Amino acid sequence: MVLMLSVERLVKRRGSREILTDVTFRAAPGRVTGLLGPNGAGKSSTLRILLGLDRADAGTALVDDQPYRRLRQPLRTVGSMLEGSGAHRSRTARNHLTWMARSNGIPIRRVAEVLDQVGLGAAGGTRVGRFSLGMCQRLGLAAALLGEPRALVLDEPVNGLDPEGIRWIRVLLRGHADAGGTVLLSSHLMREVDEIADDLVVIAHGRVVAAGPIREVTAGYPTLEDAFFALTGPTAGGR
């Protein structure tokens, strides 16, 4: 079950602008790592490079000591959700997951299992175009869980979920980490990150300004929110 996600001295440029500068951190097994930063800080770019969806100009982003593109069974290794479900609006939830399962050698029984797990068991035959934002998020999570992966990489996983859904995903991610899995999640909801994360990585202006166990990163601040604004403000330079 042990799997480490590692980002080492990552650099990414868009034209003449450097959007990631020497970004380095680890997401360890058995722990939930929260990735925090203002809009445009470089969080999504970092996750896209880690998942092989974009290329770095320098540095490495590794899953189990190898690039994502070289994984032999990617969906069984890393479950990810970056932008909702990723499903075409005309497809049903069940058809979308069945296609994913067949194309990745995953048993078809997993489709019904994950639909039930995320609370969409009764909506499997519904076209995605009729889903609410919260339902699309749940379908994206079902896709991430489909291959029973050792690691989960999630961008804003509670976006659009109601309080019950937020509580459910908190329990899900905590359980995955407690079972030895690796969880890396990006979120704007400080309260949720504070409740679930073991470790924090804070990015501002394309650089890591703080990283470590959450209580170390927030030491000296009344709340995680206070620490976040102090670390990511226009004059902040980290610690």
Automatic annotation (TrEMBL):
SMART domains: AAA (SM00382). It holds the Pfam family ABC_tran. The keyword Glycosyltransferase does not apply. It comes from the Bacteria. Residues 5-230 form the ABC transporter domain. SUPFAM superfamilies: P-loop containing nucleoside triphosphate hydrolases. Keywords: ATP-binding, Nucleotide-binding, Transport. GO terms for molecular function: ATP binding; ATP hydrolysis activity. The keyword Transferase does not apply. Belongs to the ABC transporter superfamily. This is ABC transporter domain-containing protein. It comes from Micromonospora sediminimaris.
